[in-house]
Design a protein that fits this description.
Elements (H helix, E strand, L loop, with lengths): L3 E5 L2 E4 H23 L4 H26 L1 E2 L2 E5 L1 H6 L13 H19 L3 H26 L13 E2 L13 E2 L2 H23 L5 H17 L9 E2 L4 E2 H29 L9
Antiparallel strand pairs: 1-2, 3-4, 5-6, 7-8
């Protein structure tokens, strides 16, 4: 599509990172607004956004290096390339895996929120609304860069990538626009989590856990249509993201059941509910 948005002299602005930063700023601004309404220190939330961005990039890069395949050598782990060219690990113009970022950023965020006394469940629910908003733009960046592309398709909405500077392969044949599927999924989840946070939330942490469940389920299905080199397991029947999605979804469902049972007596007993934001 358009891996470079524009050039200033010899310096190019990569489309992926431009859209990623737009998504980050949109999510950060929304989280700041939601924190103010929830009477949580908004400056701490802005700090948390920066911490999660840094940890997310580090975790996403680590997962790429450890589990994904070399796009130039299908079937061969890309870690062999990095063992021969270790400096390439620091080249983050591409090669980021969302689940790696999530698995690193969440524990660090929990530590920070607990240390600052912000309320883990309340902050997690804000994240459950804002993360999918950021993903809407991030996946559009993937589409422009050509990464995370789909399999060949005969459907009328198949997208033909022609730019050899992009990451989509093969060129000049219709591919499933899995990046747009993922962006649409994120947009749907943002709307659902936003409405859920304002109207349906019964206890702290519920919104974030539903985001994890629904994102993992949607991502699991979309992965079957993808065709980029992202690491495959179980005789190449499941991708690394699918292997991670299943236990994440199961854990989130268990916590929803467990916390829901704990919250039910309080709701049934007529205790005043927390003001929703």
């Amino acid at each position: 599509m358009r891996p470079w948005l524009f050039f200033i002299g010899d310096v190019g602005v990569p489309a992926y990172w431009a859209l990623l930063m737009i998504g980050f700023m949109a999510a950060a601004y929304l989280s700041w607004r939601m924190a103010r309404r929830a009477e949580i220190d908004p400056n701490r939330i802005l700090d948390l956004n920066l911490i999660m961005l840094l940890c997310g990039v580090i975790g996403a890069r680590i997962m790429h290096v450890l589990v994904e395949e070399d796009p130039l050598k299908p079937g061969e782990p890309i870690i062999f390339h990095y063992l021969q060219h270790p400096a390439d690990i620091l080249n983050i113009t591409n090669g980021l895996a969302f689940y790696g970022g999530l698995l690193v950023a969440v524990p660090v965020a929990v530590w920070y929120v607990h240390r600052r006394g912000l309320g883990i469940g309340r902050v997690a629910d804000i994240a459950g609304v804002c993360i999918p908003l950021g993903l809407v733009f991030g996946r559009l960046g993937c589409f422009l860069a050509g990464c995370c592309h789909g399999k060949e398709t005969g459907l009328s909405w198949g997208v033909i990538f022609t730019d050899p500077a992009g990451l989509a392969r093969p060129l000049n044949v219709p591919l499933h626009p899995t990046q747009l599927y993922s962006s649409a999924l994120a947009l749907l989840l943002f709307v659902l989590m936003w409405v859920g946070h304002r109207r349906w939330k019964r206890y702290d942490g519920q919104v974030f856990l539903w985001f994890v469940v629904l994102y993992s389920a949607g991502r699991f299905l979309i992965e079957f249509l993808r065709n980029d080199n992202r690491g495959m397991f179980f005789s190449r029947s499941l991708s690394a993201s699918q292997v991670i999605a299943l236990p994440l979804m199961a854990t989130a469902l268990f916590l929803l059941f467990y916390l829901g049972r704990k919250a039910r007596p309080e709701v049934d007993g007529g205790a005043p509910s927390e003001k929703q934001v």
